[in-house]
Design goal:
Length: 503
């Protein structure tokens, strides 16, 4: 994979262009070099100047919507995607042929030809030119970085809606263990465990290496009003917790989280949960739920959450969907029946799942507590996307390999090796679907005007390496990562840039 800085990059060949806003969509053509800017000016008295900071070309563009991938290029200007280029609609994506830089399109045998490109040394011997049509060149600024993404996938950055990384971010604001699996946005405060004040936490952390948002956790509300006692809340205490919840939601929190299974949150009644759910509904936010039981009482616990959704109309995010322990694996099909029936009924219900057959309760053992067959079926559900449930602590301590390997594992094991998800579907489950669910409307897809959270990875080499024995090993196969248009991984190495935004 090559990158270089040059003043000019122009597309050459008989092109049919369609302009959508500021986007230029390329239907077909050939890449070629010209000797200099002077040559381009002689050929066209009116070259088109652009102010792109980065141009990623020759890659397999997967836009995050679930649509088929296409051969193309993407331009970044500032913190946004400025242009998308694609081959002729309906043409089959090409494949890299040998080491001569040629890219053959199987359907029409046209060749995208990179003359003077020596892939063995990843260098360019002449300035590259890029033409808008046969007579009109684009002219790039001196600072524009050009990345040849041959054989790579270019996708939106991954969005992890289920994380537990607050302590880690305090000591590691660069968030390298997150970036090195392609994550550009994450949501914390899950399972009822959030910070006392999101505003204060935002000021404490300062700039981060990725985009971040924090749910309001029920345990945090209890700690402020009741303490750690696992007793039922009084009416007055519930009113105080409602006031705290309203203030945080008004300040921008994306929702409210609760872990009905964990101390002291076990003390919450269904009726009390309905009170908070109505508040969340009024703010048009998300109720993120860890069920009261994921094992013996799984179905009854799920029914409780459905009851709350029916009574209040709240949007429910069902966290880390699973039937835990072998004695309960047979309940999975019944759970999925209830899940899909609720959606058909009109309940606003989505779920997330991680890519491992053991939970954090199994860490340090060899126990398999989750059926992989059930896991695969869960991944294939339309309304369930990917979330890591990652626990990261001070200095990068890890309590489960999913914290470092969850997203690459989806692509390596379940897309490439087992072929139970298409690449496009898997990417959608890690980008546009979570973005849409949590109202991140300017992220999660590759489209002109969207924030430039962009990932370049090798689909043949991407691999999770974290294990039970070594849960902190970082994944491989990530070549480049951009957060708001800024490189946070360059040539597979973290840049330590603090490019993230609070969402």
């Amino acid at each position: 994979m090559a990158e270089w800085n040059r003043r000019q990059f122009l597309l050459y060949g008989g092109l049919s262009l369609v302009t959508v806003g500021t986007a230029v969509l390329v239907s077909k053509g050939a890449f070629a070099f010209e000797e200099s800017a002077e040559t381009a000016k002689k050929l066209s008295p009116n070259p088109i100047p652009v102010n792109w900071d980065t141009l990623i070309w020759n890659g397999k563009i997967i836009d995050g919507t679930g649509a088929p991938l296409f051969l193309g290029a993407l331009a970044i200007e500032g913190d946004k995607i400025s242009a998308l280029f694609r081959e002729k609609e309906g043409a089959r994506p090409g494949r890299l042929q040998g080491d001569n830089g040629q890219f053959s399109l199987a359907e029409n045998e046209q060749v995208l030809q990179v003359e003077n490109y020596d892939s063995a040394i990843s260098d360019i011997r002449e300035p590259l030119t890029f033409w808008a049509d046969e007579n009109t060149p684009f002219v790039l600024p001196e600072h524009c970085k050009i990345i040849n993404a041959a054989g790579r996938c270019v996708t939106p950055g991954f969005i992890d809606v289920h994380s537990h990384n607050e302590a880690y971010l305090r000591t590691n604001p660069e968030a390298e263990l997150r970036l090195t699996q392609g994550i550009t946005t994450q949501i914390g405060g899950n399972c009822g465990n959030s910070v006392p004040s999101i505003t204060a936490f935002r000021k404490e952390l300062g700039p981060l290496g990725l985009n971040y948002s924090q749910l309001v956790g029920y345990r945090n509300l209890r700690n402020q009003v009741i303490g750690d006692s696992a007793r039922k809340a009084t009416t007055d205490e519930i009113d105080k917790m409602v006031a705290l919840l309203e203030a945080e939601l008004a300040d921008g929190a994306p929702g409210f989280s609760v872990a009905l299974e964990y101390h002291p949150q076990t003390a919450i009644t269904t009726q009390e949960l309905e009170v908070y759910a109505r508040v969340v509904k009024d703010f048009d936010k998300i109720l993120a739920v860890h069920l009261r039981s994921e094992s013996d009482g799984l179905l009854e616990a799920f029914d409780e959450v459905l009851s709350v959704a029916r009574q209040t109309g709240v949007a429910v995010q069902y966290g880390h969907v699973k039937a835990l322990f072998q004695a309960n694996w047979s309940k999975h099909s019944l759970l999925m029946e209830r899940f899909n029936s609720a959606i058909a009924e009109g309940i606003d219900l989505w779920g997330d799942v991680y890519a491992y057959d053991f939970s954090s309760w199994d860490f340090g053992t060899n126990r398999v507590s989750i059926s992989e067959a059930n896991l695969i079926d869960t991944l294939q559900q339309d309304r369930i996307f990917v979330g890591s449930d990652s626990g990261l602590y001070e200095g990068g301590r890890v309590n489960h390999p999913r914290a470092c390997g969850n997203f690459p594992r989806i692509l390596a094991r379940y897309v490439r090796d087992k072929e139970v998800l298409s690449l496009e579907t898997a990417i959608a489950k890690m980008t546009s679907l979570p973005a849409r669910r949590f109202r991140f409307h300017d992220r999660g897809t590759l489209a002109v005007g969207q924030k430039a959270d962009v990932l370049v990875f090798d689909p043949e080499q991407i691999q999770d390496r974290a294990t039970r024995q070594q849960p902190g090993l970082i994944s491989t196969g990530i070549d480049y990562l951009f957060v708001n248009g800024i490189e946070t991984i360059s040539a597979s190495l973290p840049t330590k840039a603090l490019a993230g935004q609070w969402l």
